[in-house]
Design a protein that fits this description.
Layout lengths: L2 H18 L4 H15 L5 H11 L6 H44 L6 H26 L3 H15 L4 H24 L20 H14 L4 H13 L6 H13 L7 H33 L2 H7 L1 H29 L3 H15 L6 H17 L1
Length: 374
Amino acid sequence: MSKQSNLGEVASVFFRLGLVAFGGPAAHIAMMEDEIVEKRKWMDRQHFLDLMGATNLIPGPNSTEMTMHCGHERAGIPGLFVAGACFIFPAVVITAILGYLYVTYGQLPSVEPFLLGIKPAVLALIASAIYKLGKKALKGVELSILGVLTVIASLMGVDEIVALLSAGVIGTMYFYFKSAVNTGKVTSLIPLFFFQGAVVKLSTMKIFLSFLKVGAILYGSGYVLFAYLDAELVSSGVLSRPELMDAIAIGQFTPGPVLSTATFIGYQLGGISGAIVATFGMFLPSFLFVWIMNPLVPKMRQSKVLGYFLDCVNVGAVAVMVAVLFSMAKESLIDWRSFVIAGLSAAAIFGPKKISVMWIVFGSAVLGYLLYMV
């Protein structure tokens, strides 16, 4: 297959994923693992894990950055940009339309019944990815213990990036010195660096720079995004806190990355041109970070010490997904209807006959609407 046809395949795959990618980064990663590793075999599960672990250590939306890595794997650097753009596109368009409705009519359409159906289904998707990735990541008792400790730390409220880095550093030191003791040799420990009220109308350039700054330093979930945007926009009087909360809600219930919130706020601040530049500003750093990092991950795997680090961070990344699953289950499994939808979704995912993630998400949304509206 030619690079050009690969590019078309990349565009098709990630546009479809962008349409159904509800549930946050852990759910997006689960969908990608199923589509890219399981079905299409663009890469093996170990490399997918390595990319996932490394991506968790750089700023930006992790799941969107994973789409870029997958696109690069299939169609080179053009694939990186096409995959990221196609995954983001549906969320950006939907969010821009909702931004227009919000500015024009002052309220949002009710989508709660659909979300109540999708959320339990997402739990089953995440559980499936944890099971498959966990089997590959847990390469012995020591890594299993490290994973359990990371889950506990995450559930106790330790910041995600702190938990991952701690797992990587502590695990690397353990395996490095264990290897040194066993072999009687001490090799050089390579240092590892990661680049690391009424709405006020702003100029297009100021909107772009505000979101570029946030996109370049953002770690963590949509709740962390809320804190960054609160400091950047609410504290300066550009946006009111209720308007920011509405914007975050939009990012949560549209498919794709929650950072599409930027499109919604950009529209409020500067109309369609504000929506466009806010979106570019928010996501541009991620494209650049992934472009720089992608060639480095295989080299890290070839290094003995950095290989230890990747293994430990990979376990930490899966452990964080487990913690996310627990937290989401507490929020999503609220009554008998949610348990029914979660059970049916699990049966569809883990059952003998493979059902497309797209149909599981769509079917769960419709079922949720029917059950909660009766």
